[in-house]
Amino acid sequence: MGIGKSKTHNFPLCFSWGKSHSVDTSQGHLEPESRKAEIVSLCDVVEQSNTTEKQTGEQEGAEVGEESPEGEAEEEVFLKFVILHTEDDTDEALRVQELLQNDFGIKPGIIFAEMPGGRQHLQNLDDAVNGSAWTILLLTENFLRDTWCNFQFYTSLMNSVNRQHKYNSVIPMRPLNNPLPRERTPFALQTINALEEESRGFSTQVERIFQDSVYKTQQTIWKETRNKVQRQFIAQDEAYNTWVASVL
């Protein structure tokens, strides 16, 4: 009985072991194929991921390429005119600006109120006067009441005297609305022929003053001056870097 039990117990154990061994053996033969399949599957995933990243990168590159022109700094433009005016005459200055640009084709032009904010007034005045061919002084009743406007026209006149290419670049103008009477005009401005919008010869005056040849001459000098200043800045920067390297 003991032996019988032993045989009875051994058979299931052997069967169980044999089944287990059979499974292990089967798995042992299939493991390389399974791992190979897993590797292939992983390779497919990696390849698909790389392809997706490549496509995404190309799309992003294309988007950057499309956006890059907008991101580039706009080239500064030498203006044809700037209108100096009081704060109360902003609307009148805009009207005159549109008149010169739309009716006479004199553009681009700007009014002082359109200069960049957050900067010092003197810097804006310097950029406006030296960054344009003509400086128009809007002579209204409000002009003499504004101390800043008085400073503007004196500065503009001195600039035109001290810089040869700026000679005759300051243009006093009496607009249609609320013009400053001649008898109340400062003496320094009385010596300059003013634009009279209400006069019959206004169109002829405009055509005679705002000539393209004068604009191109001033534009060339403006570019040369800017390039010279830029070269000086680069030279100073290089000299400073050389000095720092020698000290260290």
Automatic annotation (TrEMBL):
What domain of life is recorded for the organism?
A: Eukaryota
In the record, biological process GO terms are: cellular response to lipopolysaccharide; inflammatory response; innate immune response; phagocytosis; positive regulation of canonical NF-kappaB signal transduction; positive regulation of chemokine (C-C motif) ligand 5 production; positive regulation of interleukin-18-mediated signaling pathway; positive regulation of toll-like receptor 4 signaling pathway
UniProt main location, coarse: membrane
SUPFAM superfamilies in UniProt: Toll/Interleukin receptor TIR domain
Q: Which PROSITE patterns match?
A: TIR (PS50104)
GO molecular function per UniProt:
signaling adaptor activity
**Which Gene3D superfamilies does the UniProt entry name for this protein?**
Toll/interleukin-1 receptor homology (TIR) domain (3.40.50.10140)
Q: Where in the cell is it found?
A: Cell membrane; Cell projection, Phagocytic cup; Cytoplasm; Early endosome
Q: Which InterPro entries match?
A: TCAM1/2, TIR_dom, Toll_tir_struct_dom_sf
Q: Where are the transmembrane segments?
A: none
Pfam families attached to this UniProt entry:
TIR_2 (PF13676)
Coiled-coil annotation: which residues? none
| Limits of the TIR domain | 73-229
Recorded GO CC terms: early endosome; endoplasmic reticulum; endosome membrane; Golgi apparatus; late endosome; phagocytic cup
- Where composition is biased (Acidic residues), the residues are 60-73
Keyword list (alphabetical) reads: Cell membrane, Cell projection, Cytoplasm, Endoplasmic reticulum, Endosome, Golgi apparatus, Immunity, Inflammatory response, Innate immunity, Lipoprotein, Membrane, Myristate, Phosphoprotein
- What job does this protein perform? Functions as a sorting adapter in different signaling pathways to facilitate downstream signaling leading to type I interferon induction. In TLR4 signaling, physically bridges TLR4 and TICAM1 and functionally transmits signal to TICAM1 in early endosomes after endocytosis of TLR4. In TLR2 signaling, physically bridges TLR2 and MYD88 and is required for the TLR2-dependent movement of MYD88 to endosomes following ligand engagement. Involved in IL-18 signaling and is proposed to function as a sorting adapter for MYD88 in IL-18 signaling during adaptive immune response.
Its recorded name reads: TIR domain-containing adapter molecule 2
User: What is the organism field in this record?
Assistant: Heterocephalus glaber (Naked mole rat)
